[in-house]
């Protein structure tokens, strides 16, 4: 019986008129949505010379202040290798700085004045992308999106998940 149910779940489903087929997998659906949203924000931020990943790091550092790289990775649900790769060009551009913490193994990160200026300059473009998505979704779905994405991260992080 379980085998039959599994087979059914991967069988072809009709593609809706908008051409967006159901993927039948939460991970695939979230990744597809993430790619589409990233393209929207990347397009908006391109004129500022930033990618969404870079803008997000500047924005989060502005909100969190001085923070360890581990705490930043945790806040973003990012692995340390990917985070390090994204941080390098920001540090090379002197938009962020890193310095040792009390524990020599831990690095602290903070936004520099130059990074704050880049963030302030790029924020209107980010706000335009944010508003475009918010209007396309409508207020109810916008709030639901925020709740569901946060609930998803919390559910995955639960012990035993």
Q: Key terms for this structure?
A:
single chain; 161 residues; mainly alpha; Arc Repressor Mutant, subunit A; three-stranded antiparallel beta sheet; disordered N terminus
Summarize the structure.
The protein is built from 7 helices and 3 strands. It is mainly alpha-helical and 161 residues long.
CATH class bucket: Mainly Alpha
Overall form: globular
**Radius of gyration, taken over Cα atoms and rounded to an integer in Å:** 19 Å
Distance between the termini: 25 Å
Strand line-up across the major sheet: 1-3-2
**Total strands:** 3
Can you describe this structure?
- With 161 residues, the chain is mainly alpha-helical.
- It has a single domain (36-157), classed as Winged helix-like DNA-binding domain superfamily/Winged helix DNA-binding domain (Arc Repressor Mutant, subunit A).
- It is 66% helix and 7% strand.
- The protein is built from 7 helices and 3 strands.
- It has helices spanning 2-10, 26-45, 52-64, 69-76, 80-92, 113-137, 139-157; strands spanning 67-68, 96-100, 107-111.
- Strands 1-3-2 form a 3-stranded antiparallel β-sheet.
- β2 (96-100) and β3 (107-111) form a beta hairpin.
- The longest helix is centred in the C-terminal third of the chain and has 25 residues, at 113-137.
- The chain starts with a helix and ends with a helix.
């Amino acid at each position: 019986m379980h085998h039959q149910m599994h087979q059914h779940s991967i069988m072809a489903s009709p593609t809706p008129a908008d051409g967006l087929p159901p993927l039948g997998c939460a991970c695939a659906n979230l990744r597809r949505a993430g790619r589409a949203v990233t393209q929207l924000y990347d397009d908006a931020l391109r004129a500022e010379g930033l990618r969404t990943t870079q803008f997000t790091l500047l924005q989060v550092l502005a909100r969190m202040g001085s923070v360890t790289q581990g705490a930043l990775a945790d806040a973003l649900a990012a692995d340390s290798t990917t985070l390090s790769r994204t941080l390098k060009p920001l540090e090379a551009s002197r938009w962020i700085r890193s310095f040792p913490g009390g524990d020599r193994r831990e690095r602290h990160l903070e936004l520099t004045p130059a990074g704050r200026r880049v963030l302030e300059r790029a924020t209107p473009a980010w706000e335009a992308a944010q508003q475009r998505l918010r209007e396309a979704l409508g207020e109810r779905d916008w709030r639901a999106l925020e709740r569901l994405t946060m609930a998803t991260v919390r559910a995955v992080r639960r012990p035993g998940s």
